[in-house]
Automatic annotation (TrEMBL):
Keywords: Membrane, Transmembrane, Transmembrane helix. The chain crosses the membrane at residues 20-38, 83-111, 117-139, 198-215, 227-247. It comes from the Bacteria. This is Phosphoesterase.
């Protein structure tokens, strides 16, 4: 690997990760306090996409027609939107493809001893640490927050709980935080391996739009989308910081051993 090129990636990852942690953590804590103290923010935002009369009509039909499907809360009219269903599936495919490609690039650059192995490694580990482990394997499975379409306020049967409050209203694949939003916000990982800050702006925009689609169909609250970004971004910052600190030490040990 070219030492100069490798060092530039290390320096960039260290600089960007420190910047990210310096600003993202305090902002995340501030927003967490706001959503906790004013939980009605979530309910108000979700109410923009909810039609109470449609839900009442659906429940009334269920009384006279027992075969009525109540698994989809039609109080959120866009829950059956073909476009949103397509977007949902597309994000799934794209996120899986991104992980596979980043892993293949890791192997390719490692075999060729190319300095770009380092950014490829940071991207791969960040995708695993953030969207896969922290979001889908951690928060969504253990926080227990019911989705908007399932809470009493929107014609469901479960209790609403504020963000960051552990609940028992959901047992699997729960609302906090959004997995698809996390997959979209993963674009911001590019901020730690590229000098183009457009990765951050583009990732925020893409993640925000995907998060909006999840709110529109009653799947997630505003806070689910908001903290999905912070979980992914902070996880990526930690990965970039650790890798950029450990790699030079590892290289030094290898070089010392080779010179003996």
């Amino acid at each position: 690997m070219t030492n100069l090129a490798l060092q530039s990636y290390i320096d960039l990852a260290q600089k960007r990760s420190i910047q990210a942690l310096k600003y993202a953590i305090p902002l995340a804590l501030l927003l967490a306090a706001i959503f906790y103290l004013f939980p009605s923010i979530d309910l108000t935002a979700s109410a923009w996409f909810y039609d109470h009369q449609l839900r009442i009509h659906q429940l009334a039909n269920a009384l006279s027609q027992p075969e009525t499907d109540l698994s989809i809360n039609t109080g959120f009219p866009l829950a059956t939107s073909r476009f949103l269903i397509f977007v949902y599936a597309a994000v799934d495919v794209l996120s899986r493809a991104a992980l596979i490609i980043s892993m293949l690039l890791c192997v390719f650059f490692a075999i060729r001893k190319n300095a770009r192995f380092l950014p490829a490694l940071i991207v791969t580990l960040s995708l695993i640490a953030g969207p896969i482990l922290a979001v889908n394997g951690g928060l969504k499975e253990h926080w227990g927050r019911a989705r908007p379409r399932d809470v009493v306020e929107f014609g469901g049967t479960q209790q609403f709980t504020p963000a960051w409050v552990i609940s028992d209203q959901c047992t699997h694949n729960c609302s906090f935080v959004t997995g698809h939003g996390a997959a979209a916000f993963a674009v911001t990982i590019g901020f730690f391996v590229s000098r183009r800050k457009a990765w951050l702006a583009g990732g925020l925009l893409f993640g925000g739009l995907i998060g909006l689609t999840r709110m529109m169909n009653g799947a997630h609250f505003l806070s689910d989308v908001t903290f999905s970004f912070f979980v992914v971004f902070i996880a990526a910052a930690l990965v970039a910081f650790i890798v950029s600190k450990v790699w030079p030490v590892k290289q030094g040990v290898l070089n010392t051993s080779a010179n003996k």
